[in-house]
Design brief:
single chain; alpha/beta; 3-methyladenine DNA Glycosylase II, Chain A, domain 3; TIM Barrel; Rossmann fold; eight-stranded parallel sheet; three-stranded mixed sheet; 17 strands; 41% helix; globular
């Protein structure tokens, strides 16, 4: 549990020596409490006090890393139960299970589909993160499948086997890619722990309930394995959500170090729609990693979109650069539409302008990432702000006319905007879906 400034002060030597760079030990303690400096700055801190401070500074949910380079994925290190309290830092990793009982050609085809699961939404690239290989046959076939997958993707790897020797053989091939080992249970704990320790890799630990998981993590820590990922065994959705919620609550609210680790969930529903719904549920509450079998684009895009929304900082909306955007083969006679720099607003308008097949300009006004009505209510989308952006973007140089189209929801500002900007204002549709027919009628 994080200590307050006064709690830290009690552990300090109280000499006010100033060698740390602060006038008093209390001032130093306050900076430590804010994590603005390191405890190493105090030359007279006792070893006992240092241990206490180091323990208190550890994140409630340990940070675990899988993969390397551009495919490096970090999980855990979350600090709040709910997004609105601050924000979530490390997006849930989404991956897919490939079983070794598939033929080489089937594995290659599935891997090719997975590699193509990359999309762009509101100006951001969103993509999947992991591929898991699960053993269903003998150890050699598992190793061969791992070799095939490892050479065919740059995504992070998860090696799923209950045989320590098969895991060791597969890890000899993939250790430089820093895969995740799946999994340690009470039946194979010592043997799998030895593999994880030997290769210095993160390990999934599985148990039927939280008490069992807690005991297993303590035992693994004593065996020298520190990077762990938790998994409760297969349950229905409601029971699984209870497990995930209680694990997070125990780590964040109760400072239970034995459960202070990221959490993995497997989703294996034969119905693709139910599989997508289950996966979405666990992304929201509170999976750190999710593995599923379905690889349909519509499944994955919906999950990536959900993840993008959940892991966006609620205090910093996605924003576009406030400037003039040319859509299509514009001319000096092309219409000019005005919207805010909230990414979702801009891309919604963009999509409808493109659908109209009429080249146009879009002026993105700096509203600090607020949508049209929100920005108008907050006085961020006003005639003065729009006029300022028109001049800054030099819109008058791009077109030979002086006509603007504004969203229908802010029609009330049209007269004032005409007076202040000197542009003729046309009130457009309230909803972006009306833009194509509006532009065609305008033409």
């Amino acid at each position: 549990m994080a200590l307050s400034g006064l709690d830290i002060y009690k552990l300090l030597p109280k000499t006010n020596c100033r060698e740390c760079g602060f006038p008093t030990c209390l001032a130093f303690a306050m900076q430590l409490a804010k994590k603005a400096i390191s405890i190493d700055k105090c030359p007279y801190l006792s070893q006992e006090a240092k241990k206490v401070l180091e323990a208190s500074s550890q994140p409630p949910i340990k940070l675990v890393t899988v993969g390397v380079g551009d495919s490096r994925l970090e999980f855990g290190n979350e600090t709040v139960m709910f997004r609105h309290e601050e924000k979530f830092f490390h997006p849930c990793g989404i991956g897919f299970i490939i079983e070794d009982n598939l033929s080489d050609s089937e594995i290659s085809r599935k891997l090719e589909r997975i590699n193509k699961l990359k999309f762009e939404r509101v100006g951001q690239k969103i993509e999947v993160n992991l591929v898991a290989v699960r053993q269903t046959n003998d150890g050699q076939r598992f190793v061969d499948a791992v070799q095939l997958v490892s050479s065919g993707t740059s995504l992070g790897l998860v090696l799923m086997s209950d045989e320590p020797e098969a895991l060791k053989s597969a890890l000899e091939i993939t250790r430089t890619k820093r895969p995740l080992i799946y999994h340690a249970t009470k039946n194979n704990l010592a043997a799998v722990a030895q593999v994880a320790k030997e290769f210095n890799l993160p390990l999934v630990v599985s148990g039927p309930d939280l008490d069992t998981l807690s005991n297993l993590t303590k035992e693994l820590n004593s065996l020298g394995v520190a990077e762990l990922v938790l998994e409760t065994e297969k349950k229905n959705v409601a029971d699984k959500i209870w497990d995930l919620t209680q694990i997070r609550r125990q780590a964040l609210r109760k400072s239970n170090r034995a459960l202070g680790y990221p959490v993995l969930v497997l989703v294996e529903n034969s119905d693709p729609y139910e599989e997508a719904v289950e996966a979405a549920t666990f992304i929201a509450k509170y999976a750190s990693m999710l593995l599923m079998k379905g690889t349909e684009s519509w499944q994955v895009l919906s999950l990536l979109t959900l993840r993008q929304n959940i892991y966006t900082d609620p205090q910093k909306p996605l924003q576009m650069e406030a400037k003039l955007y040319a859509i299509g083969q514009v001319t000096d006679k092309s219409p000019v539409l005005v919207t805010t720099n909230f990414s979702l607003s801009y891309y919604t308008v963009l999509g409808e302008v493109e659908a109209s097949k009429i080249p146009a300009y879009i002026v993105s006004v700096d509203t600090e990432g607020m949508s049209v009505l929100t920005a108008w209510a907050a006085e961020k989308f006003t005639p003065d702000k729009i006029t300022e952006n028109l001049e800054k973007c030099e819109v008058a140089k791009a077109v030979s006319h002086k006509r603007l189209i504004i969203p229908g929801y802010v029609a009330v500002m049209s007269g004032d905007l005409e007076e202040k900007s000197g542009w003729q204002v046309t009130v457009g549709p309230k909803e972006a879906a009306g833009i194509p027919s509006f532009l065609k009628n305008l033409q």
